[in-house]
Fold each of these.
Amino acid sequence: MTMTWTDWQAIAVPLVLALGAITVLLADALWRTGSKQVRHTVITLITGAAILFGLAFIAVQRNSVKPAFCRPAVEGPAQCSLVFEPLTVGLWAVLLIGGLGVVGLSAYRLLDVDIPVGEYHFLLLSALTGATVLAGARDLATVVIALEVVSLPSFAMVALRRDRRGSEGALKAFLVSVLSTAVMLFGISYLYGVTGSLYLQTIVTRLPAIDPDLRRVAFAAGLFVIVGFGFKIAAVPFHGWLPDTYAGAPVEVAAFLAVVSKSAGVGGLLVLVTFGVAPSGSSLRTVVCILAALTMTVGNLAALRQAEAVRLLAWSSIGQVGFLLAPLAVGDAQAAVGYLAAYVVVTLGAFGAVAVVQRHRPAGLLTDYRGMVRSEPGLGVALVFFLVVLAGLPPGLAGLFTKFAAFQAVLDAHIGWLAAVMAVNVMIGLAVYLRWIAELFRLPADDPFSVDIENPAVAVISTCAGAAVVLSILPSTLFALVT
Amino acid sequence: MSWLLIALLAVPALTAALLWALPAGTGERVAAIVGSVISGLVLIGSGVLWWKLVRPDGPSVLTAGDLPRTLPGKVHGYAETDVSWIPSLDVRFHLGIDTISMPLIALTALLVFLCCLYSLRITPRAGRMRSLIALLLVIETGVIGTFSALDLVLFFLFFEVVLIPMWLVIDIWGDDHDRAGRRRAATTFVLMTVLGSALMLLGFLLVHRLTGSFDIEYLSSHPWRSSGGTGLKAALLIAVGLAVKMPLWPLHIWLPDAHAKAPTVGSVLLAGVLLKLGSYGMIRILLPVLPGDSATIAPYLGGLSTVAIIAGSLACLAQTDVKRLIAYSSVGHMGFIGLGIATMSPEGLTGALFANIAHGIITGLLFFLAGAIKDRHDTSDLRAIGRALYARLPRIGGLLTFACLASLGLPGLAGFWGEMLVLLGAYHPGNLLPRTTFLVFMVVAGIGTVLTAAYFLRLVRNLCQGDPAEYPAAAFAVDLSRIELIAWAPLIVLTVFLGLWPWFLLQYWTFL
Amino acid sequence: MPLILPLLLAVLLFCLGVYGVLARRNAITILMSFELMLNAVNLNLVAFDAWRLDGLATGQTLAVFVITLAAAEIGLGLAIVLLLFRGHGHVDADTARDLREQPELQENEL
Amino acid sequence: MIATAWRVIGVGFSLLVILTAALLHGVDPQQADFAGSYAGIHTYISFGVRTDDLTVLMLAVVGVVSACVQVYSIGYLEKRVASYTALVTLFTAAMVTVVVSDSLFLLLIGWEVMGACSYLLIGHYWERQDARAGAMKAFLMTRLGDVGFLFGIFVLGVAGDTFRISDLHADQMSSPALTAGTLLLLVGVVGKSAQVPLQTWLPDAMPGPSPVSALIHAATMVAAGVFVIARLFDLFTAADATLTVLAIVACVTMVFAALCAMAAVEVKRVLAWSTVSQLAIMFAGLSLGTRDGRHAALFHLLTHAAFKGLLFLCAGVLLHQVGSAAFVVLRRYTRRGVLRKAMPVTFVTMTIGLGALAGVPGLAGFFSKDSVVEAAWDHARDGSTVGWVVLVSVCLTAVMTAFYCVRLWLWVFFRTPALAGALGAFEADDPMADLEDPDTSKLHDGSWLMLAPLILLAIAAAGLGYADGVHIDWPIALVTTVLALFGALPAYSLWQRGADPRPVLLEREFGVDSAYQRLFVVPVQWFAKLAVGGDRDVIGGYVRAAGKAGTLASEGFRRLQTGNVQTYLTAAVVGVVALAILAGVIGS
């Protein structure tokens, strides 16, 4: 099998990201003479350049379809391992924007001094490579490998500060992840046994035709695969590691986990559900629906009584994933990706704001934000806006319309009970964010937060805010990601 | 494209943004002035729009002999703006007004203007006038937007706009003495409403699944006539969502707390216009779009409304807090509106629309008065305030009596016509509805009017009347101030005017 | 050899691995249990491959991947365990509980 | 200043009403519609006015009595004059609206605005507990009736397809609708005119200023019920059932109220019950369903307005000078023989008024009552049971009326010869009776502003009987005179013996009030508590429970977050199994 030009094109972005990762690592390792500031800047630029290449590539190629690593199948269309298509474009855009945001958040003077810059960016780019591959993967082997390429660097990033909290967080994430990988692989092995192929294309054509006796096996196998992803995206009941890991990791890494790692998992699951193991009508979709309902309910409820900003964001990100799973469960890629995009933008912004506050107030309590709309109006208003988008209320129309699309997807699939659960969760979610918003508005504050905010943080947060505003005015942009 | 209507929406919102952009020190002082000017402009704008809508050669020429035989709530849009917004979700930015929404828009503009005017001199203890005025203006945008939205999703969107501002208004400027209570009240309000509106959204989506459109103008001329099944589910969901806002018994539980804890201007807007979003939605969306299924649920709606009338009035009879009492009275009055809608008859709908306006005016006045009394005594507890207000604050006491009489539906004042037409509607309800049931509702609602009178008279007796020797006038308590008179005068005048000249509004509402 | 025997063995191995993960406290032992689970997967893959004989040797290929993957995971895992040991002085997975939810809410109201 | 302005406006308005009545006198009946709108295709709601004989009659009554009352009030009232005068003027306007209205809704507006003014004016002395309670009671009971009235309007308006009075014709309507509509209207009439069973508010309305009692609770508002039936007489005559009900109500009321009046111990309360009784006589006249009956009723309305207005104004003078109209207080003066001498004008005019009320031949009440009896007799001779019942009741009432008039007159103004200054029937339970020597030096007749209306009305009370042209049916006149004597003699003999037996049942007015209290007020209060409790503990309970459940669940999930990674793993593995089972259940 030879590599065609299409193949190269299809893997251009992951390849550049991987090359960028190696470049960053080498640059950091070999170039020890420059000042820390210059090195940090250069590394940030290289990382940014690699990601920007990816964004430019998908901007140019957004309408093309490039199947890569294909072989003609015995029956049906060709079997491909990696496909560059509109869905891939949407997911990559989300992933790369998220990655870029995290890079921005990790710019000089923002990143914790204990964290080695080169390794950090290397791991970030590596994970991003895995994430992009995962979003384009169309066979199970690629999926597994890509998933591991996303996960392993992430745990390393969590532990990068090398303190007690970091190591504990990393251990938890790691153990859960490895278990999930094992479970998923176990499922894949049966899926392979039942269908005789690892190509999603083939699996989806063969699954309906399998021996009825093997139906249960196929179901269990599919369930294991989905559960494996459930661990990754911290769907309830596989969520236990997430709040602890977020709390243990540096805020930037938590942002990375919440944005890139989670998007990658959602992207992978989306690919699997829509193209592979769970064709419409499959009871596996019901499983995903149950997961969605559980996840959003538990996530929102647990977030209700959190006193720390990061933990609240952690739990609320679980709740958001629950909402994401709803359109995903019915195979509505457009709604899911749109939701993901809005989520990524505002989560980045919110983590950015938290990172700024946490740098000066390490306790990270919600009460630290008291009176911020008066003492730090820019940051305060931006944070309020992010939270409102997360809650899905006006003026955060980006959040509102993505939730709307999720509702529409679920209702069009005639899953009324899930829609009802979602409606209740809109309420609980609002209760979660209102507590924080209330703190921001509360006056007079004893000791209001007021500092000179670092320029990169201003840039990232205002970019996120600007993007969220634009997306709120033109929500159709969100749904144009996947056409 | 109508720039005037767009301006009515955009100007308050932009002004709010502008106010927040002002530095804190400057903003505090100029906020109320800016707010008054801008909301005054909006009021003028809505007046101009109204005139353009009903002018003799205008779009809706109505003469007595030439009545349009229209479905209840069918849209004859004017000043329309219709732009595709989110094609993938089939959402359009479709605005427009007609004679049903126009008076409500004007009422909103008026009440917001009066609230801003009132705030020129009388400010809540929490201060922060800049933010308060800005939030009032945002609420104005939201409410006017809801009244002019001709797309279901847009309606939902504007419906939600008011939530967070109102939550903030209650939470920050609410009752000074009960911080936890006002937070709880605000949160209960916002959470119940948001749950309701999420359910309503589900209903809208089901409508879209059935008819393939979110456009109210289209839907009102192509209603989903068959009943049962998904349509019934949609109607139920929409009704529940709107009923929370209205609020209909037993979903009213957020209302007394929210009104009682809110600052004066908050209560006025909450009762005056926010509740109308629910009833307006029923008239604008539920009945025209899903007539068949509405007829199925109308008896239940009517029954619950009747229960609301009785339960609200009874609850008022046992209240000891003047703001809570007025809040509960809203439950009863909105019950009348609900009953009017449930009759699905022209008289009932006309009555509901009239009662909407009248309730907005009268209850606005009542809450202004209750706020004035509360400000002067630093409590709204009747026992703590004491009696003999006639002796201590004669003008305010007199106005309170007037407002109470208006609110209990005294003929000759605005409150009467709505309730009368609702009862008349219940006397011969729409064709699809069981007449006997509605006759029972009519009689029970009639008894409700007596109970309404009873609690208002009880309020007057326990608050205004009494032996002045036992309750000497407080030194600091000043009677009606000039700004109060100015802010309330339009409401008083309108109460009398609409009571004596109901045709001013009735002539615009003609339904088959 | 009937297919069922290796499959049964794989299930057994997997369950053993799950038991180890859930029940053992020592992080190293847990890592070893993971190895057991992955090996169960490998056994499955190879058995199915032999059963299918599709000419591509898909199962065997994936098994090779899985072995590589396991190696990478163990590498990273050991590094994390080492870090844990450095911070805590032991490698018990269930005693690293610094990050649990603080039982009492540190908020003055609501 | 404002008060003066209002007084000018008030008197001027009353005079304007009289002028209007004079100008409209003899003009052909006319109707005019102004302003209206559809509310639905069939429902045209409009305002309209009309003029005919009835309008003119009522305008004259309203104008004259209100003019008298306005002038009288200038002398009578000392505090809160502006609001008082404004309300009396508003009341007059409302009554005029009722009278001239050709639209049922306009009529209703006037009807209820009158009620509101009545409420506010009864509560004029809001410092007093009885005034507060009486005002509220008056409004609520009439409001209850008005709900029926409103429903009656609906029934008639919908059946007749119009809400214009002049377009309502009995032959357009189905008989059940007609009966139902008129019966419902009757409910409102009963409430407004304080007939049984809604009679209790009127005696309790007496704490209001006396001129208000004269205007509202004697001459005009309470008579509006009579007016409405007279206005819609064609509809009522077409509904036999309604007329029968009306007759029963009227007969029961007239006897009941007269009995109550016989035992009342306060001048105004006696007059109030007598008003109820006299109104019932008018209704009895109307219930005959004949032209003569209607004419007699209206005639009685006219004379009653004059003499009852006069009586209340006289009682007002007593109140104004003495400070109370209770027999026991007045007796303190009378036992020393000063009351009659100090206030001769009041004494004389009140005597005329009482005479008219009692039916002393030659005075107005005699003629009007006789005309009712005559109408009833004519009707009874036609074989009507209703006629007989009315005849007997009115005669019975005439006896009792004479009794309580004489009782009132003697006890208030004359020393009891039998006791010669000793304690009598009323003083027995007055601890102050002997202790206090009332200060009689300041006791004198009111100012001329107050006396002039008295004299005017006294002339009317004496002379109005001849306004209708004298036609006396001698046998009937003789019978009624004898009946009056039958009533007067026992009163005289009791007074002479210094006794005033008051049966407990009568004194407590048959216990109706307390029964209503127990039957309606207490349950409503109980229900009110239930409603509040239900909101707080049931509906609010669910909402709070939902919030609490959320919080508890949140705490629960926080507890689950133990920090032990193996717990998480175990939960996950259990979750997989549960998920598989759940999906199996849902999927199959």
Amino acid sequence: MLITTLAWIVLGLPLAGALLLSLWPGEPDRNLSRVIGVGTVALGFVLTTIVFFDLLSRTPSHRHATNALWQWINVDGLHIDLAVLVDPLSVMMMLIITGVGSLIVWYSTEYMAEDRDYRRFFAEMNFFVFSMLLLVLAANFFFLIVGWAFVGLASYLLIGYYYEKPSAVAAAKKAFVINVIGDAGLVLAAFLIAKTFGSLDYAQVFATAPTRLGGGSFTAEMICLLLFVGCAAKSAQIPLHTWLPDAMEGPTPVSALIHAATMVTAGVYLVVRCNVLFHLAPYASDYVAITGAVTLLVAASIAIVQEDIKRVLAWSTVSQIGYMMVAAGLGLYSQAMFHLLMHAFFKALLFLTAGVVIHALSGEQSLNRMGGLHRLLKFASFAMLIGCLAISGIPPFSGFFSKDEILSTAMAAGPLGVVCAVAGIIGAAMTAFYMFRMYFRAFGGPQREGGYHPHPHMSGLAMAIPVGVLAVLATIGGFLQVPWGRQLVTDWLAPAIPDQSSVEASATVEWLTSLASVSVAAVAIGIAWWLFGAGPERRLKYAHTLAGLRHVLLEQWLFDDAYESVIIQPGRDLGDAAIRTAEPDLTQGIVTAAAGFSMAGARGLHRVQGGLVRTYAFALIAGAAIVGLVVVLAR
Amino acid sequence: MPWLTIIIVIPLLAALAMFIVPEGDVGTARLVAALGAGLTLVMSVLMLANFHRDFPGPQFVDHAGWATQVGLDWIVWVDGISIWLIMLTTGLFAIAVAYLCFRTPDRPRAFLALIMLAEMGLLGLFSSGNLVLFYVFWELMLVPFYFMIGMWGGAGRKLASIKFVIYTMVGSLLMLVSIVATAVIAHGITGVYTFDIVALRNVDYTRPESIWLLAGFLLAFVIKLPLWPFHGWLPDAYRESPIVVVALLAAVVSKAGVYGLLRIGLPLFPRGMAYFQYPIILLALVSIVYGSLVAWRQPTMRMLVGYSSLAHLGFIALGIAAIDPQAAQGAVLQMVNHGVVVVAAFAIVGIIATRTGKEDIDDIGGLAARAPWLSGIFLVVTMASLAIPGSNSFAGEFFILSGTFRHDWWAAAIAMIGVVYASVYMLRLYQSSMNGPARGGDPRRVELRVRDVVVLVPLIAVMLFIALWPQVLAGASSASVNAAVAPAQVAVGRPPSEIRSVVLPNPLPATVSSASGVTGGASQ
Amino acid sequence: MLIGTLSTHHQATGVPLSWYLALSGAMFLLGLLGVLIRRNPLLLLLAVELMLNASNIALVGFSRYWNVSDGQIFALVVMVVAAAEVVIGLGLIVAVYRQRLALDVDALSRLKG
Amino acid sequence: MNTLAAAPPIIVATTALLALMAGLFPQRLVRREGPTVIAIVGMLVAAVMSILLWGNRIVALGGGYRIDHLSVLFNLIFIGCAVITLLLSVNESSGVDRRGEYAALVTTATAGMILVAGAGDLIMIFLGIEILSVALYVLCALELWRERSLESGLKYLIVGAVGSSFLLYGLAFLFGTTGSVNLTKIGASLTQASFNTEPLLWIAVTLIIVGLGFKASAAPFHMWTPDVYEGAPTPVTAFMATATKAVAFVAFLRIFAGPLIDIVHTWQIAIGVVAAVSIIIGNVAALVQTNLKRMLAYSSIAQAGYLLIGVAAGTVQGAQAVLFYLLAYAAMTLAAFAVVIIREREVDNGEDLASFSGYGRARPFLGGIMTLAMLSLAGFPPLSGFIGKFLLFGAAAEQHLWWLAVIGALGSVISLGYYLRVVGVMWFGAAGDPEPRKLLNVSSPVTLSTAACGVAILGFAAFAGPLLTVCQQAAMSLLSP
């Protein structure tokens, strides 16, 4: 009871904050916006830790609780309650959301200090936190979908935060529409679930799934595939990934919170949440893994050529979520969640550090106009280095443990697992390469030509402390779960993941995989250092090798072009054609034709009525003949 | 207390009172209209408070003879379906009157009188317990709209008004033939010559009879809705009418068609509905996709919202044609939702258009910068209109499609195209007017004023309420919805486990409801 | 029943009913033809008279056949009516003449359409 | 006692003579107002007489005339139309000297109508129809100085005489087939024997349909109607459009729903076809008319088609529907013509649709009455025209004449094209001349009778229940000779 009440409060706090800030009459004081914006989320984190320890004090099998506020609707036997489910999985997500969230919101207070619409920013951030919490706390698929859509809305609002910029507006719309496509998949999945189980409650669906759905049954596969449509859209997996890079139009803290740490990992969360169903759907699970593997490679390859510091990070996010999807698809749910957690740390760190740089350079985001920042922004440089090492999987930073665990366990998970692990190792090399390319181009080498005007300034404490905290977490976070040591995350999640596949990599495989991934990463870092460490000359020298591939990469494997020409433009043409032809000719045409027919008849009668008596008499006689004929015929 | 009769008569009295109001006395005219609409709203709320939630049959039955020997009678009642349409009508007309009171049109007396007459027509329609009375009100509401379009419309108003009437009448006159034929054929079967809807529900028509009788009704319904390709009257009427009229047409009048399907189509002609099920589903799907595509490419704000309405009504029609209690329940929910949302959308379009003097989407932009409140409310309305999960519209659409999915998953899947496109065109509307570089005059002038707030805030409040707790609506209508759908479910051969209501309900006895009249229905 | 007796001779006169009817039919058609082809209103009135009298012959013939006087009374009434019609018709023709309009019904075609 | 039953026609006929004489008085005041007052008073007396006779079934004049519910109801319709026609003619600019003749002719025509309504035999039907026709020929041409009036009179006379000949010939054959002119006896003899294959009867039925169809201006025997309606003085047109049409239908009912009811199959389809053709031709042809009188003429053709649906049904319901619709039709048509009459006095081209541009806003009252009339004619509920159509469709459906009902419905859709055009011109059109020639006094008989018609359009609908009871009784009296 206590924990669900606390969960409701955690959920309600940011909502209250959002409402308060947006409905505040007039322009509220900036301090007020700040206090409300940060306070609700931070308080949420504190309460969440209470929930966490409460759950921890229970025996693992009792670590869940549900509570309904009211019966939202009951239609034809389909009950839907406005209810929360508190279990290890949701609490873990809550901790990430409120923990990382409050750091990032705190960071924003300084980052956004110059902004005109201060309170709108915090209102929308709070709304996002509320939506995300709703997503993870929902006790049924319906409110999952609601939260799912609300985070999409929050993401839309925050991507389009600078709404006077047409590119931001377009990016926001793109993100929203693609997410609606995902929502559609999710909703269809919910229909199928409702039809099959007569309920949308997690508890009931998951409890009865093994009996109602045979393993590998068509329904199970369909449910999972449809769910995954939603996951792919939200987590930017191929082919629904194109919105995420564009989403970098939003303010950097937004990118850190929504498009790196929390929202985009919702897809992973959902697959893990529905592990019971995915367990029954081997093909769908394989599809998830394959999508993850392909995405991680494609995204990593694109990241290599990006010139915008945030877009590098964005593609790296897509790539990293690919790792999580590989894990989730292979049934390595706790590994996926572990990587999710670590990714939240180091990716938030990377984004916030990038934000520090951008802030220091008054909004400059292009790597071309950076360089040699190490001496000017020492703190940021170290923070960024930690983040890069973490994401590249260099021990003992956090990314090493989580990525390594995914790869090594995947090796043991059948042939597909091996393929995915190999892809993961290649991806690891690419990751290390593009991350250090970014690092060296921004911080290494000489300063950019002409220097920096105004001089880059170090940020204040509100930005520095969150970065510092995240740097620490990204450094040591991996020790939560070390090979052959304490598997804290796995143990914690065990009650929520009953179908945890018992894949256990042998020691040899584990060592070999680690060795492979670390060594390729190290080599990649070396190459990056050689290419980018010394300034632009060498880079420019090699810029034209592999021009064709480079072009494809710069065009992001042509996904956007394909969508534009295959889906969007035909849709426009169809709409225009409908307006041009179907509207006037078909729908109006019937009426016009009928009216024209009547009018023609009227004009004909007008002519016949020529005023001559003989005509009238003749008509009389003719009419008599007709009537006579009818009388005779109809008798 | 003859609740419904009073509710129907109040607007009529208000309309008649306009004759006494001296010409040019705008204040009194406004007062009369406001009193009329307000009192009607209050009465309907009080009626709702006395409503028996779980009773599936007619309540608040008022009965008086008119020309009883030929089956013409004054029988009005509500059930769980129509009570919400009554509420929708009284609420939205009160809003419309509020809107008009602040923006007095040319010749206000006449306009307000016509608005009141239209309200009477719709209220009568939604409470008719007799087919002929249904027809009477069906046509009666047409007349004020005809005049409102013709007298206060834009440049092409003459053509638009006559097209609107003739198009609608093609369907409705054939409906009259069907109404007459229904009574005649029922007479042949039961020996009773009656137009009473309750009595006619128990008539066992043969399949061809059911099909042909329904065909006459159906044309009228799909034209009124409208469904593609019967929307030929819509573009002209929407383009030329005053925005209030467009809003009411889209929000309330269109519901008459849906209501007809629910009240007459499903319970009276289940076999016919079984026959026409897939044609209607098909038309609904085409309407959804077609309306979305065309809405997307419209140049003006009002036409965009207008065509979006075509798509949304396609969803509602789909919910009924699915012949599933869940889908039908969703349709009932969505009728209310769509009415509320579309009125809000048109109100915002009207505000923007009057303040900037522009209606073309490309001429307006960047209003959010100086009109944050408008922008915020518009966002809420946009989201409700594109049925984002968590909005009131989503509650309706979810159950429409979920119910449809149970038997015709493909139809729900195709309808999803419309869901996606809704976000495309609604965001086009929202973003191009609110975001981007400022265009179309001083955005500060566009910001909401008190007069706008009184119109929009009640609508937003209703949207939020339904979004948070749709069970209030669903709970009070489910019994009636189940009863309405049950015969058609039998006709299409659904398994008994899915049929929620076996017995067709009789009217609530006068002693139980607070209605004064006797029941007009036949016994089982 | 009746049709069978059309050709049988009537006892009293020996003139069969069919003869009456043939005469009457011929007159009626003649009158119709006159209405169709004549342009002078006077002659038109004449043609109409022919048609009315065709009826009279039929009436009288039937009256004889059934041996009742109804038909004859009817015929008398018709005569009076016909006379009244002719009077009015002639009056109108005079009025037309006075207006110096052509005595040609085809000229009476200002009202049309 | 029996002669008392014939009081209504006798009173009306006497009134005609008195009115004629009043018109010859030397005093100008008497000459001007006397005939109208006498005619109205006399006819109202006849109306009261008729009402007093309600409920009685009396045969008078040796079986030639009878009082029953039907004849009483029709007496009231005719007298009502005649009185309103006379009231609408008050202050007519045409010469005072013709007042007496005018009132006398209208009254005479009414007498003829009353005779048809109560006709007990074929002779009386023919006689009554001819009395009213002859009077109408003169009435049409009453404005001798107006070429169009003259043309309409002469045309009506010639074509009308042809029509009468058809009717007469048909009656002659009906007599010939049955051996009696008495309606009751004809009915009896048709009931006894099988007449299915009787060519003479077919001829009779055909010719009677043509003759009465002509009087009812049903298509294709309608072609005189627009010309005559347009040319005749407008009050006369109003009288023709309402009372004369009613006569034709009472004759239809007296003959077909009475004695010929047992051979319904021989004439049902034929009348149905005539009805359908009338509905289509009347409604379609009206679409392009710009002269309001002409448009109303075509509308009356279409309305005749609707009324024939009820006749074709050949049932009590059908007859009842015809009766109700006739009442409603009279009210709406008189209302429409009344407004045209008023407009004609205000402007020169008052019968042109164009002259009504913006009329509704300039004269909301008259515009309102006209709108009411048009909407009712178009069949908009809850006006009386709707209830009439509803009953007619019901009667057709009862006899499974679905096609007739559907054609009727489609015809109504077409009719919106011109009825609503009038409404649209009046309310949506640009305002016409701002300063009309003269304003009618609100209390003038013309305005009052216009208002009365408007009230009737609503009242017949509101009190449809009691009215239908009356109509039903009247219809029942057809079947019990």
